[in-house]
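Hi everyone, sorry if this is the wrong subforum. Our group has a chain we'd like a structural model of before ordering constructs, and none of us has done structure prediction before. Sequence below.
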Amino acid sequence: MTRSAVPSARADAGRPEDALDAAQAALAAEHAAVYGYGVVGGRISEKRVKEARTGHEAHRARRDAMHRVVRDLGGRPAAAAAAYTLPFPVPDSAAAVRLAAELEERVAAAYADLVRVAEGSLRREAASAVREAAVRAVRWRGGGVAFPGLGERPADTPAETASRSADAL
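Answer:
Right subforum, don't worry. Here is the predicted structure as tokens:
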């Protein structure tokens, strides 16, 4: 059986009392990302190979950490699937870039679910993973936002921003 290389980011993380399910979902997202980056690395242009390698290594490290987290929470870490279904064909470098961005967005969402239900150091680590994946997603997409993952607001004039800031005090 194959699994999606882009797992659902909402996988049972709606139960605030159960960090184990969210940790398993984050582990599954990391397994899929490691697999997906293997595809990315085989199709990416030479100028972005280093970026793909860095992403792949980051996800391997996070995968291994999440394996330990699941075990520490009393669970049995889910194994990686033998193969994953990609969300779209990846015949060239442009599609590889899109896949990398999609993987990162899904990983960020999975960790956001873990942030919602975790506490202490696990919550901090999950928040760090959200940030790292969101930044990588923005880099793959070629955009630049101050806070990746948050919706962009319309640009205000400096006076409107200052007025709103003063009102908040």
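For your construct planning: Confidence is low (pLDDT under 50) at residues 6-17, 152-169. Residues 19-43 form the longest helix (25 residues).
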